[in-house]
Amino acid sequence: MSISIEQETQYNNTPRSSKVFISYSHDSPKHKERVLKLSNRLRSEGIDCNIDQYEISPPEGWPRWMIKQIEEADYVLVVCTEKYEKRFKGKDEVGKGLGSNFEGFVITQELYEEAKNTQFIPIIFSSEDSNNIPIILKSATRYNLNTEEVYKELYARLTDQRIIIKPDLGKLKQILPKNLSPCLSTQDKKGTLVENSQKPLIGELKKITDVSHVVDTPITNTISLTQTITNNEDLPRAAIFTALPVEYRAVRKHLRCLKEILHPQGAIYEQGIFSSNDQEWEVVIAQVGPGNEQAALEVERAIQYFNPRIILFVGVAGGVKDVKLGDVVVASQVYAYESGKAGNTFEPRPQLGLPNYRLLNRAIAEARKDDWLQHFGELIPDPHPNVFIKPIAAGGKVISSTSSELYKLIKSNYGDTLAVEMEGYGFLKAAYANSQVDALVIRGISDLINDKKKADKAGFQEIASRNASAFAFEVLAKSYIESLDLAQPKVRNVSNFHKTFISSSTGMEFVLIPAGEFMMGSEEKANEEPIHKVKIKKPFYLGKYPVTQKQWETIMGSNPSIFKGENLPVQGVSWYNAQAFIDKFNEKEHTYKYRLASEVEWEYACRAGTETRFSFGDDESKLNEYAWYDENSGGVTHPVGQKKPNLWGLYDMNGNVWEWVRDKYHDNYNSAPSDGSAWEEGDNFKRVRRGGGWSGKNRCRSASRYDDEPDVRYDVLGFRVLRTL
Question: Which of 198, 250, 464, 514 has CB 3.0 to 4.6 Å from 316, enough for a Cys bridge?
Fold first, then answer.
């Protein structure tokens, strides 16, 4: 292909000089020599490449030198080997590979800050090393430098040259349609079939006279097994379960933007958006089939996969007493009526499933009002269905006669039961095993046991499903306001914020911290000034306790603490060690949601809506109730959670151990961020620690802050973890 003069001007391929740093581990003398040869060759060919082998002992120290190299480089070549990956993640033996571990953290932070960062380039010397590329770099273009051709491609990228030049666009070429009839016109052929490859002309509009069979079905998209589920991180998530297709369709009508999601094990879900009260939920819906055991299995699977905040079981039930067709029963408790001992006679031994207390009380509140009827649109039933908050019974059989032994069993042993169904107990059993979710069972009455077939034929399954769904979505609409109230910065009554999330790998418990505003800092020390307003725009989860030694060992396989004990906070960890733990924690749970809190987030959570010296007020004589400090600690750490929590349910925010946060240290708050983000700018290499540890009362204040080198390890220094939504 010849290139025109215009193209040569446009693509003159003039090399551009760049600055390159090579990040690698000292695997062996041979490996070290190969990295040196690569760097020497790049330098000989005009690229300002740097490696640690060119330095003896930089005056600013190795950590600052490495940060400077990464920050100033146009590209960082990451030489990936098994040992490098291990050190990148902090998996190597304590004290080994600190350079690679630190560089790995800096690289990870840079990629977090800018999602489209192309500065970091994976380099391998053999095909086998492809498996050793750190997970955060696996999507980047890699270069296997085992051939001269690949080196040429790398060199072209580093110098901004093109190996293959994209040609300019030519003129469009006209393609005549096949068998085009010369007599075809809009006058004499309008609306006729065209039997060739030409697009037919538009015919006349056809009037539709019978619309009785038109169904409003939302358009869905499908997410395949190999794709990542994309969720709106700003939206809370709920999961709604049904047993029957008629129930599923009733729930589905309340959602928009539906898309299909395929679980790796074959389960099929749909995910959509529910909007009400100027708020939105991301809702996953699933049809789990009949039976308590099946419900427990499928609900557990969905909870683990989607991690919802709220789960609801919505469907139909048979009315036992005090209800009419179409009424709604919210289960205040679910009896597993088939549990018991079968001897000469059956002896019931009730097992009980209980809903979430907060969600049940929300249902009680909505049952007193008619707001839920808005979800029927213009087709509000007359008379209105009633809503009951009463027990129901769940078992494995369909009860279709009031003369049956099972019906008599329920009436005689579970006399307060209003309805009977087949999945509620299994659903609540799965919820009980996942305490981070709020669960509720909502049923519409589709039959009154006798004449079940007659009621089904009359359409009462559809009516009952519609009514139960309408009430369920009203509960969901009001629950968002309750669980994520973003309103007031000076909150005093904050019991609703004790929503928690529990890590599946460590059991680490997190407390939901609401968004809001607060005044950060104090006038007691110069480094706490000036007092300034900060706005936290998004809620987040913060560790209920500092990271314990048991949790550290689960992730890292070792224990650096001086004072040993499973429930003691881990201590003797540097800022780098904390980052290594978080990287490995994220990898174990296949996420990037865990990190250290920013200094702003930490103080905001510590204050818990207060503006006093301590989260409990100004009276320091009460500190003994909330914190371990120099007067009561005995100079050692104590098990987490033994003192009182602050108003937002966080323990040991004051005292016990100091806690690392993300920020670089600054002498004051002049020019500090006001949006909750970490303050990473500046030349100071030190990092901030908060909380006071077992030191003096004044250091346990909410605003108290100190600094340290990020590689120091004290017996009073630990950390806690933040999880983003």
Answer: 464
Which of these, 335, 508, 361, lies nearest to 436 by C-alpha position? 508
- Tell me how far CA of residue 587 lies from CA of 90, 240, 594, in angstroms: 12, 29, 10
* CATH code of the domain containing 584: 3.90.1580.10
Cα separations in angstroms, 520 against 134, 562, 672: 38, 34, 11
Provide, for the chain, the percentages of residues in helix, strand and coil under a 3-state DSSP scheme, each rounded to the nearest 5.
30, 20, 50
Angle CA 684–689–691, to nearest 5: 155
Is 631 inside a domain boundary? yes
Domain count along the chain: 3
Distance CA 138, CA 684 (A): 32
Q: How far apart are CA 609 and CA 496, in angstroms?
A: 13
- The pair of structure tokens assigned to 235 is 């939206």
Residue count of the chain = 725
DSSP SS3 for 554? helix
Which CA distances in Å does 304 have to 377, 502, 542?
A: 34, 11, 20
Strand ranges (E), 478-596: 500-502, 509-513, 516-520, 532-536, 540-543, 594-595
- 97 lies in some domain: yes
DSSP for residue 160: T
On whether both 570 and 594 belong to a single domain, the answer is yes
CATH number at residue 444: 3.40.50.1580
Residues 296 and 395 in one domain: yes
* Residue 331 vs residues 312, 314, 357, 691: alpha-carbon distances, Å: 11, 11, 12, 44
Asked if residue 237 lies in contact with residue 305, where contact means CB atoms within 8 angstroms, the answer is no
Name the stretches of the chain with pLDDT < 70.
1-12, 87-117, 174-234, 277-278, 340-346, 350, 378, 480-498
Pairing of strands 143-144, 120-124: parallel
Do the domain assignments include residue 433? yes
Tell me, what amino acid is at 72? E
Do 517 and 459 belong to one domain? no
pLDDT at 208: 45
What is the C-alpha radius of gyration for the chain, rounded to an integer number of angstroms? 32
For 262, which DSSP code?
E
Map residue 249 onto helix, strand or coil: helix
Quote the domain boundaries for residue 98: 12-158
Q: Identify whether residues 227 and 121 lie together within a single domain.
A: no
How many CA atoms lie less than 13 Å away from 277 in the CB half-sphere?
14
**Rounded distance, CA 658 to CA 718, Å?**
6
What pLDDT was estimated at residue 725?
Answer: 86
Query: Which residues pair with residue 614 across a beta bridge?
Result: 617
Distance from C-alpha of 322 to C-alpha of 335, rounded to nearest angstrom: 18
Same domain, 571 and 458: no
153 belongs to a structural domain: yes
Residues 139 and 266 in one domain: no
* Amino acid residing at 488: Q
The DSSP element (H or E) to which 578 belongs, if any, is helix 575-588
